[in-house]
Amino acid sequence: MESPTGGFLILLGIRPQDGGTAVGVFECSASSLRYEIVIPKATRTERKKVRDVLQQGGDPGCPRHGPDFRLVRAGKNLVCSNCGVAYARV
Ligand SMILES: [Zn+2]
User: Fold this and answer.
1) Taking the alpha carbons of 49, 69, 81, 23 in that order, is the dihedral positive or negative?
2) What single string gives the DSSP state of each residue in 24-50?
3) Among 61, 64, 69, 85, which residue's CB has the most CB atoms within a 10 Å radius?
């Protein structure tokens, strides 16, 4: 991803927030400025999709990243490690 100052934005990490949203932290390679991008929380449709798979005893993937990206347990939530969004409670 290109940054407004001419460098590249490097993903430093994803911080899951209370309430199901997440914040992506990026650093610009040219200016070392940091940017935070808020990732919106799971929609009702996305949560339902994950719940359906769980009820069938399956291993749900991230509704945004696809089935190759498994959701992982983080406390009481099932979270995608790529977008940091919580899609279900366990
Ligand atoms: Zn994801």
Assistant:
1) negative
2) EEEEETTT--EEEEEEPPPPHHHHHHH
3) 85
Distance CA 5, CA 59 (A): 41
- Would you state the structure tokens that stand for residue 80, as one six-digit string? 């995608």
Average pLDDT over residues 4-32: 87
> Strand 77-80 relative to strand 66-74: parallel, antiparallel, unpaired?
antiparallel
Q: What's the predicted TM-score (pTM) here?
A: 0.77
Kindly state the tokens that stand for 44. Answer: 């009702």
* pLDDT tens profile 29-60: 998 899 999 999 999 999 999 999 999 999 99
d(CA 65, ligand 1 centre) in Å: 5
